[in-house]
Amino acid sequence: MIEAVGLTKRYGAKTAVSNLSFQVRPGTVTGFLGPNGSGKSTTMRMILGLDQPTSGHVTIGGHPFRSLPNAPRQVGALLDAKAVHGGRSARNHLLSLAQLAGIPAARVDEVLGVVGLQDVARKRSKGFSLGMGQRLGIAAALLGDPQVLLFDEPVNGLDPEGILWVRNLMKMLASEGRTVFVSSHLMSEMALTADHLIVIGRGQLLADMNVKEFISVNSADFARVRVADGLAERREKLTASLTEAGGRVMSEPDGALRVTGLPLPRISEVAHDSDVRLWELSPHQASLEEAYMRMTQSVVDYRSTADQKAGLQPPADHGYGQPGYGASQPPVLEAPQQNWYAPPPPGQNPPAAAPAAPSTTTADLTERDTSEDAR
Amino acid sequence: MTTPPTPQAPSQRQAPAPQYSPQPAPAGAYTSPIPVRRATLADAIASEWTKIRSVRSTMWTLGVMIVLLLGIGLLATIAVNTVDSDPDPDLGSTPVLSLGFFGVLLGSICVITLGVMTIASEYSTGMIRTTLTACPSRARVLSAKAIVFFLLTFVITTVTTALVAGMHTAFIDSAAPSAGDWLRATVGVGLYIAMLGLLSLAVGALVRHSAGAITVMIGVVLLPLVLAMFMFAESLSDLRLALFQYSIPSQLSALYSTSVADSGPSGWDPLWIMLGITAAALICAFASLDRRDV
């Protein structure tokens, strides 16, 4: 059980983590999600007593980490796969940690076997690939057979087989009754591994809920309904009837309606009953990834922009036909980019969704880039 | 809890009786089948020994130091015997053991490097986070590092200086040194150099950067003497004399009963001076490790 209360960390003027409160319970895998620079690693370091919180506190099993009796036997952590002395062999690295924690040396060979590094145990870790480094880090975390485990981005650099292995390992560790806290910036990975999600952005809590709940709240499917053009009063009439029938209706900038809570045939019936002609009635699905992207879109710190290559392109009138590689999107493609993300979930409008939908083409481009970035 | 939660205070017992206490898990269902034993300072020392012997920089720095001490000692023997072609060579008033000084002065740079690397390499690699997760007691980690490093450098320096001193007394005709001279030129120098290394370790813990800490330490060793050499102003003559007397090379030569200045520390004095400086630096290093974010 990890419990954070009002955890805040400031580095000078920058607030890395702001008033974060959450609980991580035993017996489940808890995913810790957020974009790069959102404060995940800082929070992990504060849990382990490596960084002192500016205010608030965090405890493991009721004790701050640094006053925990037999800390290495209760808490194991993988913070950074590269945090080993490259000149030391994998076995000696683990042996020194085992000795430090008063763990029998035989355990070292056990965990080397568990992570599959027994063949390179006596090789210097300098030559390890990122995936092998992750395995070594996981071995170090498992060394004390602890009941609380923290993993910071454990699947980075692993091959698909390794990712599957980590996923199953996390689930197995949790099923043994341990507390497993895994950070990631990949929603898709967490959706498969975690039972519970804690989502942060810019150091603030965005969501703390069960994965199933998160899916049902955030990945709501919707129907797009478009009534015949130029009939504003018809649209209002349909909106009223649909709301009366139990649906939630939101309007899109181009006049289409976004309906949730009603199946498509029912929408059709309601439209028919209220004598409104439809030009479009189409189902739309939002994935969990999209829900996460929407939730964190306003709190992404490192956002890429389109590579303009300004001034580097040859003049356009040279008969090449094609516009320059980095030319901005032709205006024809302009579409309401709001539907790039799923609609805000009914009844819950997270702060991330509050800012007005981006309206200019450049903003659309940057968003597109960001979403591809995180995938 | 059956045992009081006081892991901050390192237990000083060297041979711990394994305490197999039935540690109740604080708030979860999982209990490890591996018996839980409270880690002690002895465990941390074993761990630091594993760390220091399993990296090549230890072998290199200490190897180079041994080669420097022995090689320069040999060169000094040959030089004295060749230049002084007199059938009865003697060094005048210079004690024969003081010929070991040159090798030790150069070798001290290797010890400084190793002392800094012992802790600063943990910061440069990020290993310190793993270490402090495996042992949250900063005092225990720092003590274990200091003890292992001190004993290792003390033993190697003392043995090597004893070999060099033996070589000098055997091959150079001169007045036989007294037992006190012998002790100061071997054990005294060994303690002094090992403490200089500990000072480097403390500086490494404060600076947290290998190159920076090594630069600071080389400055501490050499700069006072170099500054004093160029202090020509009359009004600065007192400072100049103090720098000459108390610079680290002068203190080291005082252990060999020779000195650049006629007054200043003599006998075992340099050891006490170095002990004070090193203790103060280690206290600062502990405070820094305890308070600052890792």
UniProtKB/TrEMBL annotation, chain A:
Pfam families: ABC_tran
Tagged with keyword Cell inner membrane: no
Annotated keywords: ATP-binding, Nucleotide-binding, Transport
Signal peptide residues on this chain, from the entry's feature table: none
Start and end residues of each stretch annotated as Disordered: 305-375
Domain of life (superkingdom): Bacteria
Cross-referenced InterPro entries: AAA+_ATPase (IPR003593), ABC_transporter-like_ATP-bd (IPR003439), P-loop_NTPase (IPR027417)
PANTHER family reported for this sequence: ABC TRANSPORTER, ATP-BINDING PROTEIN
Record-stated family: Belongs to the ABC transporter superfamily.
Name the record gives this protein: ABC transporter ATP-binding protein
Organism, scientific name: Streptomyces gelaticus
UniProtKB/TrEMBL annotation, chain B:
Assigned keywords, A-Z: Membrane, Transmembrane, Transmembrane helix
Superkingdom in the source lineage: Bacteria
Presence of keyword Transmembrane helix: yes
Residue ranges crossing the lipid bilayer per the database entry: 59-79, 99-120, 141-165, 185-207, 214-233, 271-289
Region annotated Disordered, chain positions: 1-26
A Pfam short name: ABC2_membrane_4
Biased composition (Low complexity): 9-18
Protein name: ABC transporter
